[in-house]
Structures are given as C-alpha cells and as structure tokens.
Design brief:
The complex is a heterodimer of chains A (117) and B (115). Chain A is mainly beta. Chain A has one helix at residues 98-101; strands at residues 3-6, 10-14, 19-21, 23-26, 32-38, 44-50, 56-58, 64-68, 73-78, 87-94, 105-107, 111-116. In chain A, strands 2, 5, 6, 10, 11 and 12 form a six-stranded mixed beta sheet that branches. A four-stranded antiparallel beta sheet of chain A has the order 3-9-8-7, with no helix packed on it. Chain A is globular and about 45 Å long. By secondary structure, chain B is mainly beta. Chain B starts with a strand and ends with a strand. In chain B, the strands form two sheets. In chain B, strands 2, 4, 5, 6, 9, 10 and 11 form a seven-stranded mixed beta sheet that branches. In chain B, strands 1-3-8-7 form a four-stranded antiparallel beta sheet, with no helix packed on it. Classes of the chains: A mainly beta (117), B mainly beta (115).
Chain lengths: 117, 115
C-alpha cells in the first residue's frame, strides 16, 4: 500500500533563511513523487516532480527536492525563503499501477509554511 | 490555455437542496478526479474516472455522485447536501503516460457552504 507522511504540519522560517519541508513515503513499487503548493485561496500548483530520472529535481521558484530511495524520503528545500513562499505544501505519491487500478495519487496532509519578515 | 475549470467558485446552499458542481478540462485527459479539502486532513479523494463511462469511488464517496458522459466533463452531484459536506472541492485531471508518471492538473476550487 502507498502512503505519504509529511513530518511537520507547520514550519516557520525567517526571510532569507533555508527552507526544509520533509516528506516520507511508502510504496511497494517505484513511485512518482510530486510537490504541490497552495497559496491562500488558490488552487494547487505543481512545484516539481520526480519520475525516476535524476534524483535531485529542480522546480519552480528556486525549490528543489531529492529522492532518496534508501530513506524513502522526498524532502523539499529552498536556499533562501521569500515572503511569497508562505503557503501550504503537499507531497504526493503516484502509484504507477494506478492507470490500471484507478487509484493513482496519495496526498500528505500538508505543511503550512510561514515566512517571518 | 490548458486548464481545468470549475463552476461555481463559491456556493452557499441549504440542507437538502440538490446541487451540481461542474468540472471541465481542455487537455484531452483520460483521468479525472474530485477531492475535498478540510483543515488538517489534506485532500481526500471522493470519486475518480479513468475514462468516459468509467467511474469509481475514492476514499470519501458517501453523499456524492458523479458522471462521465464526455471526456472533458466530470460533474460532482450532491443529491441532498448536508452541513458536513461544507468544504473546499477540487477537480483534477491527468493523462496516462508510460508508467503512469504524469502529474495532475487542478481546478481553482469550489468553496461550498451548506447551512
């Protein structure tokens, strides 16, 4: 069975300091992994995705994530936080068998990022 | 522009009054899905559809219905809404690449309040 755990429900950082949002997953198969961002009163926007190519994935707005199979982790990082990064972040696992079973995507419960001026 | 649209964006209704939230995508995606988002619970899948006339229950289907008569449309129907269905609803679509490794595209959300 697939599952996703976002280890922190809330993270606060000061503007200009690094951001780390943690995600662990469990999957019986080689999964695809995604990070989405949701700004207040907005829909979900894809930040980046891992699909079995390079393990270090670069996304939009300076975000990166590293796929570590041995640790079953896919943590999201950014070297320097901006005020505009304040949002809710979701880690998502995709089961590649889902095209046959229909149940493709598994969401974490989200991490709320606060950026302090 | 490739997009998923939902209507209405905001809706306040009363218990028991049937309503439909529409969802449409212009990307020719096979897979479509409905989610509800509640504080502290993340997104939970209500129903999904793998293609026209193929739908199935997600994790929280009680009180909802869907249909997929056309590839681009996937309406969510609440036959008799109740206050516990007050939530933020998202429609999403995705295409099948080899290995099923494509991301979902989300609509802007529909905020529903049932009084």
């Amino acid at each position: 069975a697939q599952s996703v755990t976002q280890l922190d429900s809330h993270v606060s950082v000061s503007e200009g300091t690094p951001v780390l949002l943690r995600c662990n997953y469990s999957s019986s198969y080689s999964p695809s992994l995604f990070w989405y961002v949701q700004h207040p009163n907005k829909g979900l926007q894809l930040l980046l995705k891992y699909t079995s190519a390079a393990t270090l994935v670069k996304g939009i707005n300076g975000f990166e994530a590293e796929f570590k199979k041995s640790e079953t982790s896919f943590h999201l990082t950014k070297p320097s936080a901006h005020m505009s990064d304040a949002a809710e972040y979701f880690c998502v696992v995709s089961d590649p068998r889902g095209r046959y079973t229909g149940n493709q995507f598994y969401f974490g419960t989200g991490t709320s990022l606060t950026v302090i001026p | 522009e490739a997009q998923v649209t939902q209507n209405p964006r905001y809706l306040i209704t009363v218990t028991g009054k049937k309503l439909t939230v529409t969802c449409s995508q212009n990307m020719n995606h096979e897979y479509m899905s409905w989610y509800r988002q509640d504080p502290g619970l993340g997104l939970r899948q209500i129903y999904y559809s793998m293609n026209v006339e193929v739908t199935d229950k997600g994790d929280v289907p009680e009180g909802y219905k869907v249909s997929r008569k056309e590839k681009r449309n996937f309406p969510l129907i609440l036959e008799s809404p109740s206050p516990n269905q007050t939530s933020l609803y998202f429609c999403a679509s995705s295409s099948y690449l080899a290995g099923g490794r494509n991301e979902q595209f989300f609509g802007p959300g529909t905020r529903l309040t049932v009084l």
